[in-house]
TrEMBL record, chain A:
Residues 247-557 form the Penicillin-binding protein transpeptidase domain. Keywords: Membrane, Transmembrane, Transmembrane helix. Coiled coil: none annotated. It comes from the Bacteria. InterPro entries: Beta-lactam/transpept, Beta-lactam/transpept-like, PBP_dimer, PBP_dimer_sf, PCN-bd_Tpept, SpoVD_pbp. This is Stage V sporulation protein D. Gene3D superfamilies: 3.30.450.330, DD-peptidase/beta-lactamase superfamily, Penicillin-binding protein 2a (Domain 2).
């Protein structure tokens, strides 16, 4: 028999103390896990338990200024696979591959992972209904078909170089889709299947529907109808002249809202894989930088008028075909020269020596300041991806020759959108507005605005008075000068042509030109400015006046009713007749006259009579329209 | 006797939970049968003075060592989860390692109680008694059982006035031993890695730890409610066994967990109380050793479940499913009561 020592008892108590300590640490740990980490672990556990079959929510739409849908989504059945539920993945991969015509080996690699759920995209996304039925018939374990969306472009190529495109998981990869990806992206809804770890569903837990969020809608300032007209004209020009590239911008002169934005060649955003990167990554109206040519003369003109160094109608200029500046002979585009002319005629004729004179009268420093004030040399801030800033001469290198060439638009490089921004300011009363293309981003469900853009006035460049003179001069360019092919009766189009030799690797390239025209209407109260440039058109006569001007004229004519441009002939300059132009006259008013009276007047037109009666009740075309001399007037008669 | 009552209430509580937390029908019916059997054995053993004799335990110690050898023979031993730890006896399976833990501790207790004051405290034969079964269990291999046995034995030696200095040595030795053990089996290294950062490979080596945390975390203070466990649906490996405590925590939350913890606390407290009341040093050692073993095993299991200790395959005493372990636990309690009864007799 042996009695227990007190040391032993003490030590046992020490052991008990150890247990108590451990118990305390357990409680602390439990508190940490169950209370502090509670939310985080709950989230993780839900992910662990749930087998979610995603029901994709729609990515936000892109709409035009009137709410018309430009980019939307289309339902696309998509296969999902749970590797844990299938014992023979290789066999399953083979079966699916044979139905969908896929590479079985690659599919197997994708399916044979340790993930809970594999989305078989892009291979098995947007499969046809027949394929889906056929695959369902195979009864492959762990294979589910879920709902997904693919991006749908109802207008195909329209606006594509601006819009960009999305990848197979509808993530924006280029253009506006990329830029506004965060806002456009939706949160998928899903059916949550409560299953055990092997994927068998549990009887006593109801499946749950998880709400998703639709992506926000991006509203553009683009007017689809205007865009369609512009793209139609550009595509025709591309074909007609077999051009390398073409671009166009239409902008609201008084707000900076871009109504149309186009680059050619275009591509189909749903097939972007087959398109060269240089096409979808370059949005020409903001990316392309080139010598503007004569369209830039508008800036020189505005500066000269604002500085009051030239009187267009009374100052005379003699063009002998060239000017010599510091031993350099700078030629006019017309070899023999324009001879003696007023400065208005200098503008109409786009006479280079005349503009050099104007530039010199303004002075080098001031001219350069005007150019900068008009927004050249820096991005416009339009928030369109990939905008370039252009290249100007620095003040130190702005010598007399550079000064002279800049006056008529050579030796500098600008972007189309800079020109549009500047010309809009030159004709709208001198207000330089920031161009913009996204007017609003709003929640697709509630309609609440998330982001909004308002017209932003950068600065006043010239006075209203000067601007009025610029408008008048440019209207006369269209009526009497190099822009005559843009003339449209009653629309009072003003504008300026441009023809610039292409610069490749720092040298002018022979025989390759970028021809352009910038036009606005109506000249007394400008609403819209349209710029078109065609890169390297193949034609016997390569001038902005012959190629770009008629396109702008046509665009403005066709969009006029869509943007509520009123036809108003009051104060319009009559188009000057030149040899070769069709002889036109104004249609006389014949309504109210009897047939006998009309016959006595002996008009040169063909007259076709419709209906019986004595008096003319209506006529086509209506009075005051322009008609060719051998044109036909239809008269409609009614009894009494 | 009132202390025995508390132990009973505890067992009743755990019985209740052992039925319900297992979920599936066959488990709890089997377990109830085991429990019935265990209680019969308990009543039987608690009243048999045979189990208080030293000779009985020497015999049982030798017998359990023989069983440990037998289990290693392929025809007799059954392999489960990669360890050859079970002996099949008709429909029943027996885990000799469970038995040997007790016999070793018992034998050791008796030896220690005979150490005279004049004698050296530290004796080689004590270590031999421990090392022999450990070596045999390692051959299965069953790291968990070895760990429990070694630690329980050291608790016992500690109580038996082994010098503290030696314990420092033990700890150093233990750490070295652990490193050797881990290095010798790659799956152990993986478990350690998984312990340090279970989220690194949540589907691989960190799976158990992660799943256990996923059970416990979302339950919060009150739990999902009885039978509302999600993780028991095959997410957690062996939810009725090693990870039953996660399910308890998942269903009745932090408070329920604390309740179970408290029951174990009461068990240890009561057990040690019995030990302190005993008169003979052999009684004292036996009760302390057994209570220490049960307590340590519970602590180890709980530690694993809540991520304080790397994953080790250890059951939660009283609660976890498993015929042998339940029998053994009740057997242990019976022995404890046996010895404390004996002490009562002495007092009178």
């Amino acid at each position: 028999m042996k009695w227990i020592s007190t040391i032993s008892k003490k030590r046992l108590k020490l052991i008990i103390f150890g247990f108590v300590l451990f118990g305390l640490s357990v409680v602390i740990r439990l508190f940490y896990v169950q209370v502090i980490q509670h939310d985080k672990l709950t989230q993780l556990a839900k992910e662990n338990w749930d087998r979610e079959i995603p029901f994709a929510s729609e990515r936000g739409e892109i709409v035009d200024r009137n709410g018309k849908v430009i980019v939307t989504n289309k339902l696309a059945p998509t296969l999902y696979f749970m590797p844990a539920q299938n014992d023979n993945i290789e066999e399953a991969a083979n079966q699916i591959a044979s139905v969908l015509n896929l590479d079985a080996k690659k599919l197997y690699e994708k399916m044979n992972t340790r993930d809970y759920l594999v989305k078989l995209a892009p291979e098995a996304k947007n499969i046809t209904y027949e394929q889906a039925v056929q695959i369902q018939g195979l009864k492959i374990d762990g294979l589910y078909s879920g709902v997904d969306y693919i991006r749908h472009y109802p207008y195909g190529n329209l606006l594509s170089r601006f819009l960009g495109f999305t990848g197979y998981d509808t993530q924006g990869l280029a253009g506006i889709e990329y830029q506004y990806n965060k806002l456009l992206t939706s949160k998928d809804a899903a059916i949550r299947l409560y299953t055990d770890a092997q994927g068998n569903s549990l009887p006593h837990v109801d499946d749950e529907w998880r709400e998703g969020d639709q992506g926000a809608t991006v509203e553009l300032t683009i007017d689809l109808e205007v865009q369609e007209v512009v793209e139609r004209e550009l595509s025709q020009a591309m074909k007609k002249y077999n051009a390398d590239q073409a671009l166009a911008i239409a902008m609201d002169v008084n707000t900076g809202e871009i109504l149309a934005l186009s680059s050619y060649p275009t591509y189909d955003p749903s097939n972007f894989e087959e398109t060269d990167q240089s096409i979808y990554n370059r949005n020409l109206p903001v990316w392309m930088t080139y010598e503007p040519g004569s369209t830039f003369k508008i800036i020189t003109l505005s500066a000269a008028l604002e500085e009051d160094v030239v009187d267009l109608e009374n100052d005379m200029f003699y063009d002998k075909g060239y000017t010599i500046v510091e031993d350099s002979r700078l030629r006019c585009w017309k070899r023999e020269g324009h001879g003696s002319e007023t400065f208005l005629q200098v503008v109409e004729n786009s006479c280079n020596p005349g503009f050099i004179e104007m530039g010199q009268r303004v002075g080098a420093t001031k001219l350069l300041q005007y150019i900068k004030d008009f927004g050249f040399g820096e991005p416009t801030g339009s928030n369109i991806a990939g905008e370039a800033s252009g290249i100007l001469f620095s003040e130190e290198s702005f010598g007399p020759v550079e000064h002279a060439t800049t006056s008529f638009g050579q030796g500098i490089a600008v972007t189309p959108i800079q020109q549009v921004q500047a010309v809009a300011a030159a004709v709208n009363g001198g207000k330089l507005f920031k161009p913009y293309v996204v007017s609003r981003v709003y929640d697709s469900e509630s309609g609440n605005t998330i982001l909004e853009s308002k017209p932003e006035l950068k600065r006043n460049v010239i006075s209203e008075e000067t601007s009025k003179k610029v408008r008048e001069a440019l209207e006369s360019v269209v009526a009497n000068g190099s822009g005559r092919q843009a003339y449209r009766d009653g629309l009072r189009i003003g504008g300026k042509t441009g023809t610039a030799q292409k610069v490749v690797d720092g040298r002018y390239k022979d025989g390759e030109y970028i021809v352009s025209f910038i036009g606005f209407a109506p000249a007394d109260n400008p609403q819209v400015v349209v710029y078109v440039a065609i890169d390297n058109p193949k034609s016997s006569v390569v001038f902005g006046s012959t190629i770009a001007a008629p396109i702008v004229g046509q665009i403005i004519e066709d969009i006029a009713p869509k943007i509520n441009l009123e036809v108003d002939r009051k104060g319009q300059l009559e188009k000057q007749y030149r040899w070769g132009d069709p002889i036109t006259e104004r249609v006389p008013n014949l309504v109210g006259y009897t047939l006998d009276e009309i016959m006595k007047l002996q008009y040169p037109f063909n007259i076709e009579i419709h209906g019986d009666g004595k008096k003319v009740t209506s006529q086509l075309p209506e009075a005051e329209n322009i008609i060719q001399q051998d044109g036909t007037i239809h008269l409609y008669l009614e009894e009494n | 006797m009132s202390l025995i009552g508390i132990v009973f209430i505890f067992s009743a509580g755990t019985y209740w939970s052992s039925i319900h937390y297992e979920g599936e029908l066959p488990f709890y019916i089997k377990q109830s049968m085991y429990l019935l059997l265990a209680i019969i054995v308990f009543i039987f053993v608690a009243n048999m003075s045979v189990f208080t004799r030293e000779k009985t335990w020497i015999t049982l110690y030798v017998l359990s060592l023989i069983l440990l050898v037998l289990v290693l023979i392929p025809g007799i031993g059954i392999v489960r989860n990669g360890s050859r730890s079970w002996i099949g006896l008709g429909p029943l399976t027996i885990q000799p390692a469970e038995l040997v833990k007790i016999t070793t501790l018992m034998y050791l207790s008796f030896l220690l109680s005979k150490v005279k004051n004049s004698e050296r405290v530290v004796q080689i034969k004590h270590f031999l008694i421990i090392i022999l079964p450990c070596a045999l269990i390692m051959l299965q291999p069953d790291f968990g059982s070895v760990f429990i046995l070694v630690v329980s034995a050291f608790i016992l030696l500690f109580i038996a006035r082994y010098p503290i200095k030696l314990y420092v040595g033990f700890i150093v030795l233990g750490v070295v031993g652990l490193i050797v053990l881990i290095a010798s089996a790659p799956y152990r290294l993986k478990r350690i890695e998984a312990f340090i950062n279970p989220w690194e490979d949540p589907l691989g080596s960190g799976f158990q730890a992660v799943q256990s945390l996923l059970a416990i975390g979302p339950a919060g203070i009150l739990g999902h409610g009885f039978q509302e466990s999600r993780q028991k649906f095959l997410y957690l490996p062996e939810p009725q066994n090693d990870f039953i405590f996660s399910i308890i925590l998942e269903e009745i939350g932090l408070l329920g967990g604390c309740f179970v913890l408290a029951l174990f606390g009461i068990f240890i407290y009561a057990g040690c109380g019995l030990a302190l009341q005993s008169i003979k040093s052999s009684d004292f050692y036996v009760i302390s050793a057994l209570v220490g073993m049960v307590g340590f095993q519970a602590a180890l299991n709980i530690g694993v479940v809540i991520g304080l200790i790397p994953v080790t395959g250890v059951t939660l005493p009283f609660i976890s499913y498993g015929g042998t372990s339940l029998m053994i636990i009740w057997f242990v309690v019976a022995i404890v009561i046996c010895f404390s009864n004996q002490s009562e007799v002495y007092k009178e």
